[in-house]
């Protein structure tokens, strides 16, 4: 997802090759124009812009240039409770293209924010839908099409009701030659179990004339759920070109009762080396693996596939036999190593960063297999070791002494809750007693992924430090547990049936009666890592739950870096959009958004003026203020 510092001429070589349509667009722009043509600005996920008009000296002067209201909410009272505006717009041909939580695709004038067109996919979502969000769209230009021909520029979106749709970039109308009347049914061949739990929430990846997509699956419903397949389709016709299943074919023979391992986050592409990098989640269900014995390859991994064919090239598993919901939620970061070797950085929910050779999967920074605790759950066989990296961004141990609150009574409350559960080091397995998972399934680093400044070889990430209590419940005790849940946490707690397993599951953030986390702050940070040195450079609290205190908050969203020496991020529960000095972590600017900024910002320069754009629509599950704002900032 990121890039590197030029100590010699070698590092000025391109990290990866842009699609030809992007090259053509760049040539058509003025010298002062700087685009953002994909979800992460480039296929390798760097979230870095060479735009430098906004810099450390003038960022404090940023003003709102325009605001656009999508009208996305209210839509449906029950579904809105889950809705999250997580989109990052892309810029193509002077137009911004973005998606709303309900998969409306909107084109805006990038200078004024005026709406050019809007497409409504007319979703059919049951109330039980797992997610109500879309992180963005993708664009592809036909290099052989005649000028003015419809669908020369195609905008693609994967929808919450599992369709892949191609739209004309000029009009927003479906491209009728793609699939059936402009769309492909993604439920074909996935062994659909529960409508509303097989979705697409991330922008698809583009490789030449292929569009590659994974899926988002509802967690912990059952042992056997949908296949987490990744597929490539022809961008013109919608014909299926290849399929890859993260649960290897031989695994179905030995562990037939599983599924998932799906790629719900963003896929990275290295066009020069014909590689697609697939971040995968855990096999089903997350918290009991008695029917999926072994290490469960290639779940919880980053897998390199031949982008043109789907052929397996290499895989690196960050968690063996996952029992903690430690999906690879982040898009892999592509960059160049010290000697120019193509490299990849993998950020994880555990807060560990793995740095590998992009072509072989071999570690460039040391990786050690370390012994971890055993499980005492009947039928469970926890894997005896887990990979540890050189870079660790968040605390990995917890004890009753770590309980925190300003009030002594609440601190005692938290201390007793921690004592009553099983806790200790990372990878302590779930239990009937209740296990404190720290870092939790929220992260470490979640889908916000990382940004990378190649000039300084710095990787920037938003991190979480939230304590989660996970308790396994014998199947015949589930009804009684639901009835007596008042002692747990009805507000934030979640029961999951894990049908087919001998145990259901309950999980909840461990929060004091005041609603603040029981573990010590900071609860969220933005951090910088020197990938060449394999160490943190700075790590500062991000946001605040308590006025006047730098507590940090839980974050969902990601950072973006620029050549102006800045790191921009929102993501916090206090609705702030902030700019930090990329070298020191000093906060230089803050703007209070009208709704939660649970999205990743982007930037571009057009006609000599640089713009900063963020979607501010909040996050229903996180509880931040909801809305429908797209806000652009620029200098006076």
Q: Can you put this structure into words, describing what you see?
A:
By secondary structure, this protein is mainly β. The protein contains 5 helices and 43 strands. The protein has a single domain (9-634), classed as 8 Propeller (Methanol Dehydrogenase, Chain A). 6% of the residues lie in helices and 32% in strands. Strands 1-37-38-39-40 form a 5-stranded mixed beta sheet, with no helix packed on it. The protein has a 4-stranded antiparallel beta sheet with strand order 2-43-42-41, with no helix packed on it. A hairpin with a 4-residue loop joins strand 35 (524-530) and strand 36. The longest helix is centred in the middle third of the chain and has 13 residues, at 408-420.
Number of domains: 1
In the sheet with the most strands, the strands line up as: 1-37-38-39-40
- The fraction of residues in strands falls at 25-35%
The SS-based structural class is: mainly beta
CATH architectural name: 8 Propeller
The count of strands amounts to 43
**What's the main sheet like?**
5 strands, mixed
Q: What is CATH's topology name?
A: Methanol Dehydrogenase, Chain A
Q: What's the N-to-C terminus distance?
A: 32 Å
CATH homologous superfamily name? Answer: Quinoprotein alcohol dehydrogenase-like superfamily
Question: Class, according to the CATH hierarchy?
Answer: Mainly Beta
């Amino acid at each position: 997802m990121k890039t590197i510092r030029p100590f010699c001429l070698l590092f000025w070589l391109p990290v990866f090759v842009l699609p030809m349509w992007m090259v053509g667009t760049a040539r058509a722009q003025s010298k002062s124009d700087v685009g953002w043509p994909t979800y992460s600005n480039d296929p390798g996920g760097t979230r870095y812009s060479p735009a430098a008009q906004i810099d450390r000296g003038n960022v404090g002067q940023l003003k709102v240039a325009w605001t656009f209201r999508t009208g996305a909410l209210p839509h449906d009272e029950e579904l809105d409770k889950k809705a999250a505006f997580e989109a990052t717009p892309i810029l193509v041909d002077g137009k911004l293209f973005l998606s709303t939580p309900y998969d409306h695709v909107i084109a805006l004038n990038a200078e004024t924010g005026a709406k050019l067109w809007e497409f409504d996919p007319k979703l059919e979502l049951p109330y039980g839908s797992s997610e109500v969000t879309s992180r963005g769209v993708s664009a592809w230009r036909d290099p052989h099409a005649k000028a003015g021909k419809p669908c020369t520029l195609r905008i693609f979106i994967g929808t919450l009701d599992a369709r892949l749709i191609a739209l004309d970039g000029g009009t927003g109308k479906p491209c009728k030659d793609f699939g059936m009347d402009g769309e492909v049914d993604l439920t074909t061949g996935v062994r659909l179990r529960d409508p509303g739990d097989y979705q697409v929430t991330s922008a698809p990846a583009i490789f030449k004339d292929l569009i590659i997509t994974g899926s988002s699956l509802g967690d912990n419903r059952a042992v056997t759920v949908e296949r987490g397949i990744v597929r490539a389709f022809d961008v013109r016709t919608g014909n299926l070109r290849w399929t890859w299943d993260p649960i290897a074919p031989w695994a179905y023979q030995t562990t037939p009762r599983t599924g998932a391992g799906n790629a719900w986050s963003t896929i990275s592409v290295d066009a020069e080396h014909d590689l697609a990098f697939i971040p995968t989640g855990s096999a089903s269900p997350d918290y009991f693996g008695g029917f999926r014995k072994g290490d469960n390859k290639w779940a919880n991994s980053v897998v390199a596939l031949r982008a043109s064919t789907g052929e397996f090239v290499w895989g690196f598993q960050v968690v063996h036999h996952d029992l903690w919901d430690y999906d690879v939620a982040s898009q892999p970061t592509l960059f160049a190593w010290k000697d120019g070797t193509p490299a990849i950085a993998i950020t994880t929910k555990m807060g560990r960063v793995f740095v590998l050779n992009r072509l072989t999967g071999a570690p460039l920074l040391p990786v050690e297999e370390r012994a971890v605790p055993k499980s005492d759950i009947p039928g469970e066989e926890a894997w005896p070791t887990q990979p540890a990296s050189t870079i660790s961004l968040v605390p990995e141990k917890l004890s009753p002494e770590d309980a925190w609150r300003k009030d002594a009574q609440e601190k005692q409350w938290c201390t007793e809750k921690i004592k009553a559960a099983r806790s200790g080091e990372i990878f302590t397995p779930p239990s009937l007693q209740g296990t404190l998972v720290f870092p939790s399934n929220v992260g470490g680093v979640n889908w916000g992924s990382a940004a990378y400044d190649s000039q300084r070889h710095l990787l920037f990430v938003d991190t979480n430090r939230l304590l989660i209590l996970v308790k396994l419940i014998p199947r015949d005790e589930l009804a009684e547990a639901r009835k007596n849940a008042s002692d747990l946490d009805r507000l934030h707690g979640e029961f999951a049936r894990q049908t087919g397993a001998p145990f259901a599951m309950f999980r909840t953030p461990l929060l004091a009666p005041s609603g603040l986390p029981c573990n010590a702050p900071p609860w969220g940070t933005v951090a910088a890592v020197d990938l060449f040195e394999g160490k943190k450079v700075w790590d500062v609290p991000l946001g605040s739950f308590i006025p006047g205190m730098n507590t940090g908050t839980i974050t969902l969203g990601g950072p973006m870096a620029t050549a102006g020496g800045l790191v921009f991020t929102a993501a916090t529960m206090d609705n702030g959009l902030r700019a930090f000095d990329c070298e020191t972590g000093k906060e230089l600017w803050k703007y209070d958004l009208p709704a939660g900024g649970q999205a990743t910002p982007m930037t571009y320069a057009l006609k000599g003026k640089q713009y900063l754009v963020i979607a501010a629509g909040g996050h229903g599950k996180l509880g931040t203020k909801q809305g429908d704002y797209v806000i652009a900032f620029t200098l006076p």
